């Protein structure tokens, strides 16, 4: 199962990707995480990417593509993967199709108002990266700490309502060509993400199985 998760800020794509990762034991690959790992290792690609990131600039497509390509050659992706944060441009989408064609692109759709409310209640574990919400599922058992490692949960500074509204609009300005590209290739699956994880995930899994994309058995039945 090789899929891409896309959605505006607040759509919940990270939460749904996390669920699939945990239930089916396939890697959830975030480009941000890949970049940080390459920088930490001091690889040539990582050092080049760091120069752009340190200046607050976007890493060029050719560097991003090479870093993602390298990650997708690792052994843990044999059963599949969930890409999050890539592709971000039409050139990246086309390059990915040449390297490893994906089975489906999941576009999680929510309204701007839902996105604003969700992000205003979002808290994140700085250690394991798990995302919770004090208003929606998944809620932490304790609003202050992570259920898994007990780390103090934090809020992102860019989750203020007006900033979220701007990020939402910029997302669709940027991603509409990518969405149309995958729609033309009949790889796009759009799903309403406003119902919460207990509603969205069974529906998404059903769609993936009906389309012959999800063929894995759960490695963890309790999710």
From TrEMBL:
Subcellular localization(s) per the UniProt record: Cytoplasm
Entries under InterPro entries matching the protein: Adenyl_kin_sub (IPR006259), Adenylat/UMP-CMP_kin (IPR000850), Adenylat_kinase_CS (IPR033690), Adenylate_kinase_lid-dom (IPR007862), P-loop_NTPase (IPR027417)
GO MF annotation: an example: AMP kinase activity
Region described as NMP: 30-59
Alphabetized Pfam families for the sequence: ADK, ADK_lid
Gene3D superfamilies documented for this protein: P-loop containing nucleotide triphosphate hydrolases
Location of the Adenylate kinase active site lid domain: 122-158
Record GO biological process: AMP salvage
Major subcellular site: cytoplasm
EC number(s) per entry: 2.7.4.3
Binding site for AMP: 31, 36, 57-59, 85-88, 92, 156, 167
Residues given in the record as Zn(2+) binding sites: 125, 128, 146, 149
Catalysed reactions listed for this entry: AMP + ATP = 2 ADP
Keywords for the protein's UniProt record, in alphabetical order: ATP-binding, Cytoplasm, Kinase, Metal-binding, Nucleotide biosynthesis, Nucleotide-binding, Transferase, Zinc
Annotated residues for binding of ATP: 10-15, 122, 131-132, 195
Gene Ontology CC entries for this record: cytoplasm
The protein's annotated pathway: Purine metabolism; AMP biosynthesis via salvage pathway; AMP from ADP: step 1/1
HAMAP family associated with the record: Adenylate_kinase_Adk (MF_00235)
Subunit structure: Monomer.
Domain remark text: Consists of three domains, a large central CORE domain and two small peripheral domains, NMPbind and LID, which undergo movements during catalysis. The LID domain closes over the site of phosphoryl transfer upon ATP binding. Assembling and dissambling the active center during each catalytic cycle provides an effective means to prevent ATP hydrolysis. Some bacteria have evolved a zinc-coordinating structure that stabilizes the LID domain.
Family statement drawn from the similarity comment of this UniProt entry: Belongs to the adenylate kinase family.
Its biological purpose: Catalyzes the reversible transfer of the terminal phosphate group between ATP and AMP. Plays an important role in cellular energy homeostasis and in adenine nucleotide metabolism.
UniProt cross-references to NCBIfam families, sorted A to Z: adk, PRK00279.1-2, PRK00279.1-3
Protein name: Adenylate kinase
Biological source species: Thermosphaera aggregans (strain DSM 11486 / M11TL)
Annotated gene: adk
